[in-house]
From TrEMBL, chain A:
GO cellular component, one term: axoneme
Pfam family, one: Arf
Protein name: ADP-ribosylation factor-like protein 6
Topology in the lipid bilayer: Peripheral membrane protein
PROSITE patterns assigned: ARF
Automatic annotation (TrEMBL), chain B:
The protein's name: Coatomer subunit gamma
GO cellular component: COPI vesicle coat; endoplasmic reticulum; endoplasmic reticulum-Golgi intermediate compartment; Golgi membrane
Gene Ontology molecular function, alphabetical: structural molecule activity
Family matches, as InterPro entries: ARM-like, ARM-type_fold, Clathrin/coatomer_adapt-like_N, Clathrin_app_Ig-like_sf, Coatomer/calthrin_app_sub_C, Coatomer_g_Cpla, Coatomer_gsu, Coatomer_gsu_app_Ig-like_dom
Entry keywords, A to Z: Cytoplasm, Cytoplasmic vesicle, ER-Golgi transport, Golgi apparatus, Membrane, Phosphoprotein, Protein transport, Repeat, Transport
Topology within the bilayer: Peripheral membrane protein
Primary residence: cytoplasm
Higher taxonomy: Eukaryota, Fungi, Fungi incertae sedis, Chytridiomycota, Chytridiomycota incertae sedis
Highest taxon in the source lineage: Eukaryota
Subunit structure: Oligomeric complex that consists of at least the alpha, beta, beta', gamma, delta, epsilon and zeta subunits.
KW Transmembrane (keyword) present: no
Source organism (scientific name): Anaeromyces robustus
C-alpha cells in the first residue's frame, strides 16, 4: 500500500480492500448469510452446499470486501488454513439449532485460533448464532458457552443471533465488525 | 492470450533460462494485494511453459502453487482468469485437492453477465471433477449443454465427451439436452452434439440407425454430416448390406448431391469402401469423385485421386470412365497427385496408353520421394504381368531406375518387380539377367546381391548363352564381402552342375575359392567340388525341383527341439510335406502382396498432403499378426507353436445383451484355440472367475474322440465395459480336421458393484449364461493365399488329385449369395476379382486359392448357374498336391 492511497482512503475517496474469511460447519448458513450481505446478489433460492470455496467481492460501508466463503464439509475443512495468512477478519457461523455438533464447531474453532498464521494476530472474529427462527434453538448465551468463547482472550470477538433467511440480526453483527476493521486499518 | 503475444514481441527472451524454483518464488505474487494481472499472467505462462516442457513438479509444490492460484479468483481481469483456468487444468493431475475450486468455477459458469470465460470455466470444471463429484455438478452441465451461447454449449458437449469415459451412466442421462443441442443453430455445437449422441448410443445399432435417419437432413454443420457418413460406413462395414442397412446406402447416395465438397467426398469414399459394392452402387460415387478431379482445390483433387487409386485395386473397370480426367492430372504440379494419377492409370489403362504413360513417368521419377517411387514400381510390376508384350519397355524402365540413387526399400521394390516379371514371363529372362548382372557390379545392398546371385544360379543355366554370366558371378567372389562370396560360390556350382560343358572350367574357379579367408565360402566350395564328381548327388541336392513346406518344417523342428521325448530319436523329415518350387513361389507371392499393400498405405500416410483417413495405418496391420502376438504373450498358448490361421470374429450373443461374447477360432498345427472376447455391459455388476464350457453338440464323425479338450484359460475379473479374453484349447492330431458344432456356456461368479464408486460387494453367487452354438467348419482350416495368375497355378498343380462335385444350392437366392457362402464354407481366397458378379449375370466362375492346414496349397474353381426356379447349381473342382485335401474341401459344401 503506497502512502498516497492510504491518504486517499483516509479522505474517503478510495475504498480500502478487506479480506474476510467465512468459516463454520457445513449447513450452518455461511453462504446464505454472505449472500444477504452482498448487494449484487439477487436471492434466487438456489443455494447449494459449497464445494471448496467461493470468492465474493463487493463494496459495503465504503470498504472493498473480499469474502472467502469456505465449505464447511469435513473433507474441505483442512483447506481453511490456506487462507488464514492474509485475512483481516473472520466470520464464524454456528447453526444454533444443531446442538449435537456444537462440540465439533468448538473443536474447529480451537484449531483455527491456535494456527500459526492466526495465533499472534489481533484480528476480529464475528460469531453468528444462525437459524434463530428454528424452535428449540440455542440462545446466544448457550452458544457462547458451548463454544467456550469466554476462554478466548486474545481476540476481539462478538457474538450475535441471526436469521440467514430473513437477514434479521446480520447487520448488527456486521456493523460491529466494520467498526473494528476501520479502527484497526485506518 | 493476446496479452501473452504482445509480451513475446517486446520481451522475446522471456522463456529463456526459466527455472522452476525462481518461478515458484515469483508465484508468491499471487498472494499480494492489489493483484497485478499482467505480472500474474506472465508467471502463469511460465508455469505452463515449464509443465509443457515436462518439468516435474512435486505434489507438494504443485499443491502450494495451486492454492496461491486460487487467490487470483479475487481479480476480475478476464485474460488473467482464462490463464488461471488453463493452469488449473494442467495442475489438476499433479496437485491435491483441486476439486476445491468447484464452487468458484460453478459460479463463473452461472455468471449472468455474458462473460467470455464461461466456456473456459466449463472445461476446467470437467477436468478437475472426479466421478464421485459428477452428480453434484450434473445440473450445471446439463444447463450449459443447452446454453444459447454456442461456445458454452460446445465446451459442455466436448467436456461431456471426455467425462463419458469416466462415468457413462451419468452422461447417458443427458441425452435430451444433447438432442436439443443437436438442433441448435451453432455449427460447432451441432457437430459436437452429434458426436456425443453417437458415443452414448454406439452399442445400440438400431438407435444409431435411427439417429442417422433422423439427422440425414436438416443439420447445418458440414462436420456433423461427415460424422454421420462415417457412422454409416461403420455400420455398413459390420452388417450384411442386404439387410437394414440398404436404406443407409440411399442416404449416402443423397449426400453425393450435397453442395458442400467435404460431405460429397466423405460419402463417395464411404461408398467406395463398402464391402461387396456393386458397380451400380459405385457409379454415382465415382462420378462425384470425377468432378473433383478437375477442382481447383489441391486437397480435393488429391483426396479424389487417392480414393480412385484405392478403388482401382478392387474395381478397375469402375473407374475407366474417369481415365481422361486422370490423364490430365499426370502433369499436375503437385507430385503426389501426379503419382496417384499415373499408378491409377497403370492399373486401369489399356495397352495403347501404356507407352505414353511410361514416358511421362520417366519424366518425373527423380522428383518424387522414395515411398512414391515404390508405389510406381508396384504399379509397373502389375502392368507388366497384364501386358506381357510391353515387357521390354518395362524392363528398360526398371533397369534405368535401378541405376539411379535410392534407398534399400526402393531398390528392393525394383528388384522384386524384375523377379516377378522373370517368373511370369520366361522369355524376358535373358534381358532381365543382363540388367541384374550390371546392377550387382555396383550394388551397395548385400541382401539384394545375394538374392540376385541365387536367381542367376537357379535360372541362368537355362538361358541361351549361360557362359556370359560366369564372369559377373566370379567377379563377386573377387570383390565382395564374405556373404556375397558364399552366395556367388553356390551360383557358380549350379552352372557347373546343369551345364556339363562348363563344368571343368568352373571347377578351376571353385578350387580357387578353397583359399578364401572365410570358412563358409571354403566349405561351400569343397562341398560342391565333391558333389560335382557324382552325377547322383548332383541330382539329389541341386537339380531337385521339389522342396519342403518350409512353414511346416520350421514348426516341426521347433516342436522337435522343445520336446524332450521327441529328441531321443532322430528328426523324421519324411513327415514334412514336399511341395513343388512353384507352390513355394505362390506362398512367397502371398507374403509379398501383403507387404506391398502395407507399404503403399504407409507411404500414403506419410505423404505431406492432409490425410483425411487416419485409419489407413490401422487397417494395414494384419489382425492375424495381432492375434499371434497376443497369444505368444501367454505361456500356455505360446507352447502350441506357430499360429497357422485365424477366423473372423463370430458373434455368440446379440450386441445389446448383458454380456456380449464373440469367438475367433485359431488353428495351430496340432491344436485349436477358441478365443472368446467377452464384454460386460452391466455397470452394476462385476464377474469373477469367468470361464467358457464348450461341449460337442453335434457331429457326424466317429473319430471325434481324437479332438480332446485340453484346458480353459479363464478371466479373473470382468469389469463393466472392459473387454477381456478367455481361451479354450483343444488338441487334435495333425491330419484330423473335423467339422463340429459346439454348445457354449459362460460360467462365472457375479457380484454387485456400485456404478459410481466402483465398490464391489464381497458376496457373489455362481451363475451361467447360454451362448449361441459355435460352428467349426472346414473353412476354418484354410489360410488365405494370393496368386496373380490363376490359370498358371491351376495348371501347375495339375489334375492328378482333382476332385469334381456338383451341388444344388437351393437356399441361395442369387449368385452373389452363393458366392459369399461358397467362400465362407471353403475359407479360400477369391482370385482375379472373381468374387464380383455382374448384377444381371446368371452364370459365374469363382476362382479360389488357399493353403490347407499343414501348409498344403489348394486351388478351386466353382462354376455356378442361377435359375430362379431351382436356385444355384454349383460345380466345384478342387486341386491340390494332396488327394485327401481335395476330398475334404469338396465335401465341405452343405
Ligand atoms: N431455517 C433456517 N434455515 C437457514 C437459515 N440460514 C440458512 N438456512 C438453510 O440452511 C441450509 C444451508 O445453508 P448454506 O448457506 O448452504 O450453508 P453453508 O454453511 O454455506 O454450507 P456449506 O457450504 O456446505 O458449508 C440451506 O438450506 C439454507 O436455506 C436460517 O436462518 N434459518
Ligand atoms: Mg456454502
Amino acid at each position: 500500500m503506497g502512502r498516497f492511497s492510504d491518504f486517499l482512503i483516509a479522505l474517503g475517496f478510495m475504498k480500502k480492500k478487506v479480506n474476510i474469511l467465512c468459516v463454520g460447519l457445513d449447513n450452518s448458513g455461511k453462504t446464505t448469510i454472505i449472500n444477504s450481505l452482498n448487494p449484487n446478489k439477487v436471492d434466487n433460492g438456489m443455494i447449494v452446499p459449497t464445494i471448496g470455496f467461493s470468492i465474493e467481492t463487493f463494496s459495503k460501508s465504503k470498504l472493498n470486501l473480499t469474502v472467502i466463503d469456505m465449505s464447511g464439509q469435513g473433507r474441505y475443512r483442512d483447506l481453511w488454513e490456506h487462507y488464514y495468512v492474509d485475512v483481516d477478519a473472520v466470520i464464524f457461523v454456528v447453526d444454533s439449532s444443531d446442538k449435537i455438533r456444537t462440540c465439533v464447531a468448538k473443536d474447529e474453532l480451537e484449531q483455527m485460533l491456535n494456527h500459526k498464521d492466526l495465533k499472534k494476530r489481533k484480528i476480529p472474529i464475528l460469531f453468528f448464532a444462525n437459524k434463530n427462527d428454528i424452535e428449540d434453538s440455542m440462545s446466544v448465551a448457550d452458544c457462547s458457552n458451548a463454544l467456550g468463547l469466554n476462554n478466548v482472550k486474545t481476540k476481539n470477538w462478538y457474538i450475535c443471533s441471526c436469521n440467514g433467511l430473513t437477514g434479521d440480526g446480520i447487520l448488527t453483527g456486521f456493523n460491529w465488525l466494520i467498526g473494528i476493521i476501520k479502527k484497526i486499518l485506518i | 492470450m493476446m496479452m501473452q503475444k504482445k509480451d513475446e514481441d517486446t520481451d522475446g527472451d522471456m522463456f529463456q533460462r526459466i527455472d522452476k524454483s525462481t518461478v515458484l518464488q515469483e508465484a508468491r505474487a499471487f498472494n499480494e494485494y492489489p493483484i497485478n494481472p499482467k505480472k500474474c499472467q506472465q508467471i502463469l505462462t511460465k508455469i505452463l511453459y515449464l509443465l509443457a516442457h515436462s518439468e516435474v513438479f512435486a505434489t507438494a509444490e504443485a499443491t502450494e502453487t495451486f492454492f496461491s492460484i486460487t487467490k487470483l479468483f479475487q481479480s476480475k481481469d478476464i485474460p488473467l482468469r482464462q490463464m488461471v483456468y488453463l493452469t488449473i487444468k494442467e495442475l489438476s493431475t499433479i496437485a491435491e485437492d483441486v476439486i476445491m475450486v468447484t464452487s468458484s468455477l460453478v459460479k463463473d459458469i452461472n455468471s449472468t453477465s455474458e462473460t467470455i470465460y464461461r466456456a473456459n470455466a466449463i472445461r476446467a470444471l470437467c477436468k478437475i471433477t472426479d466421478s464421485s463429484m459428477l452428480q453434484s455438478i450434473e445440473r450445471f452441465l446439463k444447463q450449459a449443454i443447452v446454453d444459447k451461447n454456442p461456445s458454452v454449449a460446445s465446451a459442455a458437449l466436448v467436456s461431456s465427451h471426455h467425462l463419458f469415459n469416466k462415468n457413462k451412466e451419468v452422461v447417458k442421462r443427458w441425452i435430451n439436452e444433447v438432442q436439443e443441442a443437436a438442433n441448435s443453430r451453432g455449427l460447432a455445437t451441432q457437430y459436437h452434439a452429434v458426436g456425443l449422441m453417437y458415443l452414448i448410443k454406439q452399442h445400440d445399432r438400431m438407435a444409431v440407425i435411427k439417429m442417422i435417419q433422423n439427422y440425414s437432413s436438416g443439420l447445418r454443420s458440414p462436420y456433423a454430416y461427415c460424422m454421420l457418413v462415417r457412422y454409416i460406413a461403420k455400420i455398413l462395414d459390420e452388417e450384411d448390406i442386404d439387410g437394414n442397412a440398404r436404406g443407409l446406402y440411399e442416404i449416402l447416395e443423397g449426400f453425393l448431391r450435397h453442395k458442400n465438397d467435404m460431405i460429397v467426398y466423405e460419402a463417395a469414399r464411404a461408398i467406395c469402401n463398402m464391402k461387396n459394392v456393386t458397380s451400380k452402387e459405385l457409379y454415382p460415387a465415382v462420378s462425384a469423385l470425377q468432378l473433383m478431379l478437375v477442382n481447383p482445390k489441391v486437397s480435393l483433387r488429391f483426396a479424389a485421386i487417392r480414393t480412385l487409386n484405392k478403388l482401382s485395386l478392387t474395381h478397375p473397370q469402375a473407374i475407366v470412365s474417369c481415365n481422361l480426367d486422370i490423364e490430365n492430372l499426370i502433369t499436375d504440379s503437385n507430385r503426389s497427385i501426379a503419382t496417384f494419377a499415373i499408378t491409377t492409370l497403370l492399373k486401369t489403362g489399356n495397352e495403347a496408353s501404356v507407352d505414353r504413360l511410361m514416358k511421362q513417368i520417366s519424366g518425373f521419377m527423380s522428383e518424387i520421394a522414395d515411398e512414391f517411387k515404390i508405389i510406381v514400381v508396384d504399379a509397373i510390376r502389375a502392368l507388366c504381368l497384364k501386358f506381357p508384350q510391353k515387357q521390354t519397355m518395362m524392363l528398360n524402365f526398371l533397369a534405368s531406375i535401378l541405376r539411379d540413387e535410392g534407398g534399400y526399400e526402393y531398390k528392393k521394390a525394383i528388384v522384386d518387380a524384375i523377379f516377378d516379371i522373370v517368373q511370369s514371363i520366361p522369355e524376358s529372362r535373358e534381358f532381365a539377367f543382363s540388367y541384374l548382372c550390371e546392377f550387382i557390379e555396383d550394388c551397395e545392398f548385400t541382401k539384394l546381391s545375394v538374392r540376385i546371385l541365387h536367381l542367376l544360379g537357379a535360372e541362368g543355366p537355362e538361358v541361351s548363352q549361360p557362359s556370359q554370366y560366369i564372369r559377373y558371378i566370379y567377379n563377386r567372389i573377387i570383390l565382395e564381402n564374405s556373404t556375397i562370396r558364399a552366395a556367388a560360390t553356390s551360383a557358380l556350382a549350379k552352372f557347373a552342375i546343369k551345364i556339363p560343358e562348363l563344368r571343368e572350367r568352373i571347377k578351376v574357379l571353385l578350387t580357387r575359392c578353397l583359399e578364401d579367408v572365410d570358412d563358409e565360402v571354403r566349405d561351400r566350395a569343397s562341398l560342391y567340388l565333391r558333389i560335382l564328381d557324382d552325377e547322383e548327388l548332383c541330382k539329389k541336392y541341386i537339380v531337385n525341383e521339389n522342396t519342403y513346406s518350409l512353414n511346416y518344417l520350421e514348426s516341426s523342428l521347433q516342436e522337435y527341439l522343445e520336446d524332450e521325448a521327441l529328441r531321443k530319436t532322430a528328426f523324421d523329415i519324411s513327415k514334412v510335406p514336399i511341395i513343388t518350387k512353384a507352390q513355394e513361389k505362390s506362398e512367397q507371392l502371398r507374403i509379398k502382396t501383403k507387404t506391398a499393400g502395407i507399404l503403399a498405405s504407409s507411404a500414403m500416410n506419410s505423404a505431406r498432403e492432409p490425410s483425411p483417413k487416419k485409419s489407413a495405418m490401422a487397417e494395414s496391420i494384419d489382425p492375424q499378426q495381432q492375434y499371434a502376438m497376443e497369444m505368444e504373450a501367454i505361456p500356455q498358448l505360446a507352447a502350441l507353436g506357430k499360429l497357422f490361421t485365424s477366423s473372423t470374429l463370430t458373434p455368440l450373443t446379440e450386441l445389446e445383451t448383458e454380456y456380449v461374447v464373440g469367438c475367433v477360432k485359431h488353428i495351430f498345427q496340432e491344436a485349436i484355440v477358441f478365443q472368446f472376447n467377452v464384454r460386460n455391459t452391466l455397470n452394476d455388476s462385476v464377474l469373477e472367475n469367468v470361464s467358457i464350457v464348450m461341449d460337442i453338440a453335434s457331429q457326424d464323425d466317429e473319430n471325434i474322440d481324437l479332438l480332446q479338450p485340453l484346458y480353459c484359460i479363464p478371466c479373473n475379473q470382468l469389469l463393466y465395459d472392459q473387454p477381456e479374453k478367455i481361451y479354450v484349447v483343444y488338441k487334435r492330431p495333425q491330419q484330423y480336421t473335423p467339422s463340429v458344432t459346439f454348445s457354449c456356456l459362460l460360467k462365472f461368479i457375479v457380484k454387485d458393484c456400485d456404478p459410481t464408486t466402483g465398490e464391489i460387494d464381497s458376496e457373489g453367487f455362481e451363475d451361467e449364461y447360454q451362448l449361441e452354438d459355435l460352428e467349426l467348419s472346414i473353412g476354418d482350416y484354410v489360410a488365405p493365399a494370393f496368386i496373380i495368375n490363376f490359370q498358371k497355378a491351376w495348371d501347375e498343380i495339375g489334375d492328378a488329385n482333382e476332385v469334381v462335385e456338383t451341388y444344388m444350392l437351393t437356399a441361395a437366392t442369387s449368385l452373389k449369395k452363393a458366392i459369399s457362402s461358397v467362400i465362407d464354407m471353403l475359407g479360400m481366397t477369391p482370385c482375379e476379382n472373381s468374387d464380383i458378379v455382374e448384377d444381371r449375370a446368371n452364370t459365374h466362375a469363382l476362382l479360389l486359392t488357399g493353403t490347407f492346414v499343414g501348409g498344403i496349397p489348394c486351388i478351386a474353381r466353382a462354376r455356378m448357374i442361377y435359375e430362379s426356379s431351382t436356385g444355384v447349381t454349383l460345380e466345384l473342382t478342387v486341386r491340390s498336391p494332396v488327394r485327401a485335401v481335395c476330398e475334404i474341401l469338396s465335401n465341405a459344401i452343405n
